[in-house]
Design brief:
Layout lengths: L3 E3 L4 E3 L3 E4 L2 E3 L4 E3 L1 E5 L2 E3 L4 E4 L4 E5 L2 E3 L4 E4 L7
Parallel strand pairs: 1-4, 2-5, 3-6, 4-7, 5-8, 6-9, 7-10, 8-11
Length: 80
């Protein structure tokens, strides 16, 4: 039902991390921090999804993130 595959040399660190409903993470992809990935998302190659300092990133498909793509979220400078 959930169909989640993490393979190759992919790194999944930090958390909480939710992977649900046809998620594929492979190659040398890096997933780090508080991340929600669901509904037909593919992350491959050297792509990175990184959430810093308690921020959350939510990816909902269908999406393909590959190559050298980077998705990050950091706090706004004025909000510190």
């Amino acid at each position: 039902k959930h169909h989640v595959l993490v393979g190759g040399h992919a790194e999944v660190r930090g958390g909480p991390i939710l992977l649900d409903d046809r998620v594929l993470i492979e190659g040398q992809a890096c997933i780090q921090g508080e991340i929600l990935i669901e509904h037909q998302v593919e992350i491959s190659g050297r792509a990175a999804v990184i959430a810093f300092d308690g921020n959350t990133i939510h990816l909902r498909g269908p999406k393909v993130i590959n190559g050298e793509d980077r998705i990050t979220r950091t706090p706004l400078v004025g909000s510190l």
